[in-house]
Write a structure and sequence with these properties.
- By secondary structure, the chain is an all-alpha fold.
- The chain has one domain.
- Helix content is about 70%, strand content about 0%.
- The chain is built from seven helices and no strands.
- The longest helix has about 30 residues.
- The chain starts with a helix and ends in a 17-residue tail after the last helix.
Length: about 220
């Protein structure tokens, strides 16, 4: 990126928005749980998606749609990274617009629930592929910050994978004794936060490569 591009306020706004969405991913589960407890005197829900049926519905749907819209608009130089980012964006918006079904769903609620599961699978599969594979492949950094970024991508992907496995295992009969601890909510929150950390590092909100000094500043 040229020096003039760095000074362009439109570019600065774009980079700021990119980082804001990363922070939003970390903050969303916390905001849902805290808002439902402090504002609506509700309990912790079994999953992030279950907040659709609480007073925090607008925060859930709005947050997912904002994240999804940005992922769709994000332009990556690597075509595979761009493809998976857009797939994750479609999945995030779909999860927000098609709620998880209630305890006794109608036919339409059941269809919406099936779409919710399909969009959720799309979103998490794409999000998992980004830090585990694409960020590590397309990040050109070979200096010390670059190598550390790649280790963070790998660690974030592993945490996401383990968290999603835990969420899947929580539906087994043997895990019923732990249902009062809401393991799916915590697993989903860990997966979302892990991806957000990788996203922020990918955008060099942290661990930036050092910019060379301008020629006129070198003596």
């Amino acid at each position: 990126m040229s020096e003039s591009a760095h000074r362009d306020p439109r570019v600065i706004s774009y980079l700021t928005l990119r980082r804001a969405v990363g922070y939003l991913g970390i903050a969303l589960p916390i905001a849902l749980a805290a808002g439902n407890t402090l504002i609506f005197s509700g309990r912790l829900q079994q999953s992030v998606s279950d907040y659709f049926y609480t007073g925090m519905r607008g925060v859930l749907v709005g947050g997912l749609c904002v994240i999804g819209a940005f992922l769709l608009a994000h332009h990556a130089e690597d075509r595979w990274e761009r493809l998976f980012t857009r797939a994750a964006g479609v999945g995030a918006i779909g999860v927000g617009l098609f709620p998880t079904p209630p305890a006794h769903p109608s036919l339409l609620q059941g269809v919406a629930g099936d779409l919710h599961i399909a969009f959720g699978a799309l979103a998490f599969t794409a999000l998992l592929a980004l830090p585990l594979w694409l960020f590590r492949r397309s990040d050109p950094g070979r200096n010390r910050p670059g190598l550390l970024r790649k280790r963070i991508y790998l660690a974030s992907g592993i945490v996401m994978l383990l968290a999603l496995m835990m969420a899947g295992l929580s539906s087994l009969p043997l895990a019923a004794a732990l249902s009062h601890l809401d393991p799916v909510f915590w697993a989903e929150s860990a997966a979302i936060a892990s991806f957000s950390v990788a996203w922020l590092v990918r955008g060099q909100a942290f661990l930036r490569d050092r910019q060379p000094l301008p020629a006129r500043a070198i003596r």
